[in-house]
Amino acid sequence: MSVTLLQQQMQRLGVRRLLVFSGEALWCEQQAIQFCAQSGGDWLWLSDSAPDEVNACSPSAAHTLLGQDILHGVFDARRSLNVEALAAFSGTLKAGSWLILLVPEWRAWADTPDADSLRWSEQPQAIPTPRFIRRFQSLLEQDSSVTVWRQPLPCDLVPLPAAPDWQPPDGQPTAEQSLILQQLLQAHSGVWVLTAARGRGKSTLAGMLIRQWAGICWVTAPAKASASRILHQTVETARFIAPDALLALCREGAVTGADWLIIDEAAAIPAPMLSELMASFPRVLLTTTVQGYEGTGRGFLLKFCASLPQWHDLRLNAPVRWSSADTLEPFISELLLFDEHLPVAEQTDGTSEIFPIDAADWLSEPALLTDFYGLLTSAHYRTSPLDLRRLLDAPGMTFSASRMHNTLTGALWLVDEGGLSAELAQEVWAGRRRPRGNLVAQSLAAHAGFPEAAVLRSRRVSRIAVHPAFRRRGIARDLLAAQKQCAQQAGLDFLSVSFGYTSDLASLWQQAGFRLVRISTQKEASSGCYAAMAILPLSAAGQALADNAQSQLNRDWRWLAPQTERVLPINITTDTAPDDADWRELNGFAFAHRPLESSLPALNRLLLHSALPLTALRAHLQQGQSVAEVVRALKLSGRKALLTRWRQETQQALKSAGTVE
User: Fold this and answer.
1) What is the pLDDT of residue 222?
2) What secondary structure does DSSP assign to 52-90, as a single string?
3) pLDDT over threshold 60, residue 293
4) Rounded CA gap, 438 and 462, in Å?
5) Average per-residue pLDDT in the chain?
6) The whole model's pTM is what?
7) Are the beta carbons of 399 and 372 closer than 8 angstroms?
8) Whether the predicted pLDDT of 346 surpasses 80
9) What's the rounded Cα separation, in Å, for the pair 103 and 106?
């Protein structure tokens, strides 16, 4: 069938289709250009190396397209496959659109290094991603609506099966939208949460609310472009304001007269900020996408909304921007495991069996991958396609799970860390090098002052999740205990974890034998908690690290965040005399590139025991002057010049004390 007739059929049925060109890079590009010329449309290319004559956007900027309606697109995956961009791009294509995908030669694709892996594999060079690509290829081959044109074979575009004609939206609310709209228009107060997959009209519904509401509505979103569909329908009583600016107004008490706050794509805004914004408005509508690269709507409901005292759960299920016969959405959903899948708990009595998972099992047991990833998604609402790619193909991963009868009850994912050379670890400590990966090991070296942490071999808990129907049965503890034994047999020095500090989580890790060794001085924007790091020592060297790091944390905490002394379990010591570790830290700050934040405790103890003026250091650390105030008072050019001055004053103090290394 000709491209024109296929296009007419797709438009009549209200569907989008996927067409894949697989071959040499230039051949793929030429075929795409020729195909685009046969049908009118936007034909936007998502590519970092698009031909000069086409309209193109970088995959890294795909999020700026959200809210737009695009007719036809080309996604360039010849060198790099950014699946977040693919998901976002597919959501912008309207009914009747082709999505052309350019990929490497079919047989070589799985073994071709993917430049996108540099974002998530923690490797210095791009790596092949064979498991993700083979799964991708299998899904493409199984889907009868997808055409894969492989160089140099001929291409046969087949029509779709017959289906009822699609009735495009006419501007009036659908039955689902109308029902929800009436609830919102009658609301006197409260929090309303609207979740839907892309293309269901949730932003359109928010715009209808603004247009029909008699009072004033404020709109915010992670980016103004993502709220364009809402704003397109707005009237003079609506106002858009960025989240940061809105938060400042809320804190100033400057929010008056607004009846509604509408937060578009709420799951992409840090939870603490959401809570603070919502407190200033009588009515709040949160919209969030169930399927998308920002995170998952199900996890958002389970994690954030469940913490609210009262909220209204609203759902839109029927697609509006394309028909229910669409072929592109279910393909992308299956590829990236977007469906809200939680293993069915057939029986809840019995004992869970713990078993290891090899990465090869993800392809040989696809149901295991779906269940495992579903548990992670339900427990961590910021789980994204990057996690799926990392899980399938990143090196240095360890997986285990627990199962009762036929139900997956728990999932544990760990990442290898450490093993750096002593020389590189010292460079990390000095602030001169920051190699990829090693979150906890490198943080303990760079910030806590323990370069040996990056030399020792360790394994970090990346994710742990337990099925909601099986919680508080010790499954997480048993999973961790089994991994402790495996790590000891492998000769590792410690297990580690980084988490947002809450008393419940701290208790979980403490019961599993982990010891708190580092806490951030400020709360994380994403969680509203202090970032805590804990380790479970496995060897004599790991035990020594835990002892020293815990002792150092107790000694330093009064200088780091005294306002949190009552809420965190720190046994603060009163010793203020600089010790050998302090002199080493001070030399690192004075003569290397150790950051001020990491050296604060040692610098404060130095100031207590030095008779030198050390004007710049004392002004900031003892007198509490801000960086700007000190810069102004000392007539310096800026923060960089002030940091140089701080280092110079520390050098003077070290020379005076005779402790220069």
Assistant:
1) 84
2) TTS-EE-GGGGGGGTT--BS-EEEE-SS---HHHHHHHH
3) no
4) 11
5) 91
6) 0.89
7) yes
8) no
9) 8
- Is-contact 14 325, C-beta < 8 A? yes
Distance separating alpha carbons of residues 222 and 249, to the nearest angstrom: 17
Helix (H) or strand (E) holding 177: helix 175-185
Burial class (CB in 10 A: 0-12, 13-18, 19+), 17: buried
Closest CA to 236 of 222, 218, 221: 218
C-alpha span between 350 and 540 (Å, rounded)? 37
CB distance 475 to 409 below 8 Å: yes
Q: What is the pLDDT of residue 294?
A: 47
Check if the beta carbon of residue 228 is closer than 8 Å to that of residue 240. no
Instruction: Tell me the HSE value of 286 on the side-chain side, using a 13 A CA sphere.
Output: 27
234 falls in which pLDDT band (50, 70, 90)? low
Place of tokens 């951030």: 520
Residue 150 φ then ψ, to 5°? -100, 130
What is the rounded average pLDDT of the residues 644-651? 96
Spatial distance between the Cα atoms of 215 and 238, rounded to a whole number of angstroms = 9
Burial class (CB in 10 A: 0-12, 13-18, 19+), 464: buried
pLDDT at 227 over 90: no
| Cα 136 to Cα 149: distance, rounded to the nearest angstrom | 15
Please check whether residue 46 is in contact with residue 57, taking contact to mean a CB–CB distance below 8 angstroms.
Answer: yes
* CA separation for the pair 487, 418 (Å, rounded): 13
Largest CA distance in the chain: 89
- In b/e form, how buried is each residue of 630-646, taking b as 16+ CB within 10 angstroms? bbeeeebeeeeebbebb
Please work out, in degrees rounded to the nearest 5, the angle formed at the alpha carbon of residue 379 by the alpha carbons of 194 and 471.
Answer: 120
Give the H/E segment covering residue 7.
helix 3-13
Q: Over pLDDT 70: what percentage of the chain?
A: 94
Position 295 scores a pLDDT of: 47
Q: What's the full length of the chain, in residues?
A: 661
**For the segment 258-287, what is each residue's pLDDT rounded down to a tens digit?**
999 999 988 878 888 899 999 999 999 999
CB within 8 Å of 437: residues ≥ 6 apart: 122, 415, 417
Structure tokens at 150: 């492989």
Task: Report residue 37 as tokens.
Answer: 């010329």
CA 657, CA 651: separation in Å to the nearest integer?
A: 10
Q: Phi then psi for 199, rounded to 5 degrees?
A: 80, 10
Q: For the residues 31-40, what does the mean pLDDT come to?
A: 94
For 396-449, the pLDDT digits (tens) are 999 999 999 889 999 999 999 999 999 999 999 999 998 888 999 999 999 999
More confident site: 58 or 270: 58
DSSP-assigned states of every residue in 323-358: -TT-SHHHHHHHHTT-S------S---S-PEEEEE-
CA distance 78 to 234: 41
What local confidence, expressed as pLDDT, does residue 298 receive? 58
